[in-house]
Amino acid sequence: MSLTSIAEKLFFRRRQRELDEYPNQGEKMQEEVLRFLVSRARDTEYGRKHLFNQIHDYNDFVQNIPVNDYESLKGDIDRMRHGEENILWPGLVKWYAKSSGTTNDKSKFIPVTQEGLQHIHYQGPRDTVAFYFENNPQSRLFDGKSLILGGSHSPNYDLPDSLVGDLSAILIENITPAAELFRVPKKATALLSDFEVKRDRIARETINKNVTNISGVPSWMLSVLVRVLELSGAKHLEEVWPNLEVFFHGGIAFTPYRKQYEQIITSPKMHYMETYNASEGFFGIQNDPNDKSMLLMLDYGVFYEFIPVDELGSDHPNIVPLSGVEVGKNYAMLISSSCGLWRYEIGDTVRFTSRNPYKFVITGRTKYFINAFGEELIMDNAEKGLAYACEKTGAVVSEYTAAPVYMDNKARCRHQWLIEFSKEPENLDEFASILDKRLQEINSDYEAKRFHDITLQRLEIVKARPNLFNDWLKSKGKLGGQHKVPRLSNDRKNIDELLEMNK
């Protein structure tokens, strides 16, 4: 019997049975999570301030606790980082995930408690493997090595054994010794801060290993895999790792990178599995390979609430728990979790595709959109539009960002797209027309603003030089790890910086 078969029977089969209860027990699971969170944090400073001892149901919870963003909790988190205990969660919190999910270059420091680490951030990967085994009973996953791509960390103030950095680095730092037997590269390499040095070392350390699975952010993992091919002289990755069978990916949308992966991995046994893992928690898993939706994970110590996107910013938005969501509606997500976040707006938007089980797709970021002229273009629109244009022209997009041109010297307004192609279309103007038309087909507001070119003219595409986006991230100290290129923006700060570097 293979190691994979033994692991599947010993560690995953019982959990698979529990996950089978999701379609019937989802709302009950969430009620239990809410009771646990309130009870556990009752005697913290935040719990006393917001009368957790008087919270008996969801209505009490809503009445006692305000909706928070990072600025609301920043003061408490900074005190925790300096060693104060029992502030947002019981005890001392030693780990903080540094998030670059802002548009103003300021970092967020998300608490990672011991309970959150075990029951959210590690439980997600365990369940991902459980679903993978269920869908692929012939898997030999544990007969080889896992290539896990992570970021880096550094000491947190003067607090002993306290770390701040990429969540992936915190996970690698705290991984169990047994798991170390199945992963590559070595920890010292995985935690290097210089991505260019790390990329080369990872490739050299893993090139002769039996890698069966890879995990990481698609953009950074692709860079590592290209380096493996360069060093090996191979054309396709299965020549280097013949037993490679799955890529567990998350962090950014996979659509812009799928063709590039399919070009370097041609094996018919290769699988791709999306996860929704963020600094704030692990929220979703693609449990069905034939369905792009992800299952919302409901028993991890995360309580979910949802705000209709069209009510964001209003004085009294209709915030609903899981039981109140509607299929097909776009929501911003709030979480309360065992990492000490309370009714916290994480900045992502989702759309449910089904209830019982609760499945969803990520549609974008609350701050990553273009709505300069009432067009309400979101990332989901952009990804679908680009995928269609690439399909029709044979192009492959490596990176992109887009922003509005409010008015040029001829009083014309439009969207400007800066795109780095790994395979350019034969005709860039045709690509722009196809993209523009497709966006009109999938977004009625964009279509209305484009009508007869009255409000918006056809979008403009500027071709980016090779490695422009990586150079830009490097200039900000954000090369590698979990850092992302902001795809859409309502202002021109990012795109103007990039255009200046594109000269």
Cα-to-Cα separation, first versus last residue: 59 Å
Identify the strand order in the major beta sheet.
6-3-7-8-9-10-11-16-15-14-12-13
pLDDT averaged residue by residue: 90
Q: How many individual β-strands?
A: 21
Oligomeric state of the chains in view: single chain
User: What best-fitting shape do the alpha-carbon axes yield?
Assistant: globular
User: How many helical stretches?
Assistant: 18
Strand content is 15-25%
Helix fraction? 25-40%
Largest pleated sheet: 12 strands, mixed
Weakly predicted, low-confidence segments: 101-105
Question: What is the C-alpha radius of gyration, as a whole number of Å?
Answer: 23 Å
User: From the helix content, strand content and strand pairing, which structural class follows?
Assistant: alpha/beta
Keywords:
12-stranded mixed beta sheet; 503 residues; alpha/beta; 18 helices
Descriptive report:
About 1% of the residues have low confidence. The radius of gyration is 23 Å and the shape is globular. It contains 18 helices and 21 strands. The chain is α/β, with parallel strands linked by helices. The longest helix has 19 residues. Strand 10 and strand 11 form a beta hairpin.
Summarize the structure.
The chain is an alpha/beta fold and 503 residues long. Helices cover 37% and strands 22% of the residues.
List the helices and strands and how they pair.
Blueprint: H1 3-19, H2 22-40, H3 45-49, H4 58-64, H5 70-81, E1 95-99, E2 108-112, H6 114-121, H7 123-135, E3 145-148, E4 153-155, E5 163-165, H8 167-173, H9 177-180, E6 183-184, H10 187-190, H11 195-206, E7 211-216, H12 218-232, E8 246-249, H13 255-264, E9 271-278, E10 281-285, E11 294-296, E12 302-308, E13 320-321, E14 330-337, E15 344-354, E16 359-365, E17 369-370, E18 377-378, H14 379-393, E19 396-405, E20 414-423, H15 428-442, H16 444-450, E21 460-463, H17 468-475, H18 493-501
Parallel strand pairs: 1-5, 3-6, 3-7, 7-8, 8-9, 20-21
Antiparallel strand pairs: 1-2, 4-5, 9-10, 10-11, 11-16, 12-13, 12-14, 14-15, 15-16, 17-18, 19-20
